[in-house]
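SAMPLE LOG
Freezer: B-3
Tube label: C17
Construct: single chain, 133 aa
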Amino acid sequence: LFRFLGRIIEVSEAHTGGIFCIEETGNEMSIIRKVLRKRLVDREAEEVYYNEGILQKCINTGEGEYQIDWSGYPGIDTLTGMPDWQSVIAVPMTDRGKIRGVTYLSVPIKSKEFDEGTYNYVKTLTDIMAAAF
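STRUCTURE (predicted):
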């Protein structure tokens, strides 16, 4: 998962990413494992900012999305003094109709804004990976 996440971050040009492994118990889905990574760092990150609301929405609905995270607040850009808003992709990793996890990627909007093409590419790769775990 760690290497896969690194490749997804690389090809999507994201700055940070996470794979959240999901387990269904009864009617609830809970996160049982997080794999977090930053671009160009070859070790797992202990803390990476992600919007819990976007992640939970993806888990609950089983639908992915790409958007600007206007409500999250990871910090202030030191040069401009403006909020460092993030462009986000959240994709459920489904295998035979069951959600196995969620891939979450983010990049500051001053660097890049995710589009439909990037989302579809990431979705295809995560669906392939979901079958493997």
